[in-house]
């Protein structure tokens, strides 16, 4: 019913705007609020959170691309699963800004902030996993994924979700540790070498 | 005079930006304004309004796609009708933010806020209905819509408009009820199964 | 050196973001700043300015499309002229917000605000006119514009510029009148029927 | 593994949003904060920084286009190098806003602001240089760059990086001078005539 091109164009637009809005939270208060050096130093959690969120969205975009390029027919259910994924992508700047505002503050609020952040990334992961499950259905991919390749594909694409679930719990033990784990997930995915779902034969 | 591609690209851009800006209204005030848990709980109308607006814009995008993919010639009148639709799409973040700010506050202001929200969705619906009417004209669709399929198509695509008109009135009886109805419309359209105008034969 | 596709994609992105950011200025102050009805009524200049800017950018987008679709070779000078046009497109939300903030306030500030607005639209018009002049050069259009059609094309596409120049002056006599004239230009262009440069033969 | 089209679409989206968000920092405080003329005059550093950043991003976009159009295979490493470039593109509105806020203020803060600005442009330049280096590898370009053309290409595309490195140091001697140099780099690239990497034969 719909060509893949516009699904990609709309999704790319949302990814691009969300990734750019991340930096909107990085503002300094201006003259009269302490030296600029001090303000920038004080905002380090904002820069760390920006970096993690930027690459996390970037990686989801790369994976989204790989998956969608292999999908044969774009149907309504897929469009709505895609909207669920984007629903959480769009929340990432909000969750990132909340972490930036509360992390250095410490205490229970910092833990809640990182838990909200982990929950947002978990939602993104679930949305992507749902799109993957749908696409594994009979006749939906150009290059089908062999039965024995499905679990590796699931682990590769949605393994992050399990970690993000753990992050929500860990946040209540240590907010910086939990945030660090989300950063480690991003680093892992950048260097990870499992063959992508687009090329199950390589 | 214009190929469909750029109409789609520009519209997709506006849809993508508008849907992402929805989340800009979801900010917390930062340390020193009560606990974060309390602030997040207090902002529940913002999250509900975000959810409804996100899927309402998403559905309009899906329908826009279905309709435009069937249009043969992109003429100036169609471009301007499309701009009318986008004029209201762009207002959705403003209307959503107004609901988020006033709903929990209650009283007459909450009712006005939801009425403004309903009016914005009504405008979007009218813009889309006008594009549909234009496209039903002689020789404008690749796959023409048979005479006896036109009313079902109108009902399917613009039926929401009648509900949104009612929402404006209902808002003055109960703001939460009126907002709930706009959410119900979104849920209905996600699960609705009427054949799309792109494939009048299925 | 560059295909037209990416020039269009980038320009469409800027047009789409700028037109959507227009509505960012439409915020209400929230509970505790007078009734919502009062706040909305007080913000009428913001809604009027939003409406005029929305259709003015929309019309420039339509004309940009018509012109670029007829251009044969995308060279570096054209890319930079296009950037000059976009430089002013991007300023429109700022100029619109300034008009919204000062128009009802009246006095000299309101006049300066509308003059700045007129100047921004003038810059947009000059940027577009420069792209048109460049494209009238030997061998740059798919369908060349006959010598006797060039002046009508210039008048059609950049006639608005002369009016915007006048608007800057008129703003210092009457800000609302000058703003009204920019609205009249938008209405005129929507209904205007001069053949476009893409089809000099119709 | 991925077609070039979506890399371009996503990057164009980020460039377009970042270039449009530049103007978000250009707001006036509204009535009751001095005359509008005074406020606009006082904000001159904001307008200058906007102008420089707009053309600097525009030039990087033109060069990005030229380079990517010549790339044969889009692999994962290239996608991540592209994300590094975009990471800094997205920071430009933040860095520009910081310069706008502190330049007229003078003193050490103004110097830090311009140094942060230079560092952001340096990061952009390094990201672009890394993409260029990657693409010079065996079999990665449609039209290979001859051995004796590689250094001119490197100088042309990343020469700005050396200047931006110097800008960081110069900022601590004179903030306005350092900012002026970044403006001069933009002017130089607009008028520069070295053959692009897309056409090493002309």
Features:
homotetramer; 202 residues; mainly alpha; 7 helices; elongated
Outline the structure in words:
The structure is a homotetramer of 202-residue chains. The first copy, chain A, has 202 residues and is mostly helical. Helix content of chain A is 74%, strand content 0%. Chain A is built from 7 helices and no strands. The first copy, chain A, has helices at residues 4-21, 36-42, 44-69, 76-102, 107-135, 147-171, 175-191. The longest helix of chain A has 29 residues, at 107-135. Chain A is elongated and about 60 Å long. Chain A starts with a helix and ends in an 11-residue tail after the last helix. The mean pLDDT of chain A is 88. The interface between A and B is medium-sized, with 34 and 35 residues.
| SS strand fraction of chain A | under 5%
Low-pLDDT parts of chain A are none
> What class would the helix/strand composition of chain A place it in?
mainly alpha
- Mind summarizing the main beta sheet of chain A? none
Overall shape of chain A: it is elongated
Number of strands of chain A: 0
Oligomer: homotetramer
Mean pLDDT rating of chain A: 88
State Rg of chain A.
18 Å
């Amino acid at each position: 019913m719909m060509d893949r091109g516009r699904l990609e164009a709309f999704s790319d637009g949302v990814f691009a705007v969300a990734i750019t809005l991340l930096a909107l939270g990085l503002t300094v208060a201006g003259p009269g609020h302490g030296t600029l050096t001090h303000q920038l130093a004080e905002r380090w959690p904002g820069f760390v959170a920006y970096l993690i969120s930027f690459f996390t969205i970037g990686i989801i975009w790369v994976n989204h691309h790989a998956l969608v390029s292999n999908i044969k027919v774009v149907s309504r259910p897929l469009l709505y699963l895609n909207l669920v994924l984007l629903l959480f992508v769009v929340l990432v700047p909000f969750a990132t800004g909340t972490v930036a505002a509360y992390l250095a503050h410490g205490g229970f609020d910092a833990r809640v902030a990182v838990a909200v952040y982990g929950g947002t990334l978990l939602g993104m992961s679930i949305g992507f996993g749902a799109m993957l499950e749908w696409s594994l259905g009979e006749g939906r991919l150009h290059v089908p994924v062999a039965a024995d390749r499905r679990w590796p594909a699931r682990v590769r694409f949605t393994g992050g979700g399990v970690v993000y679930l753990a992050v929500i719990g860990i946040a209540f033990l240590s907010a910086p540790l939990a945030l660090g784990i989300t950063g480690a997930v991003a680093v892992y995915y950048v260097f990870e070498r499992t063959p992508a779902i687009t090329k199950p034969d390589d």
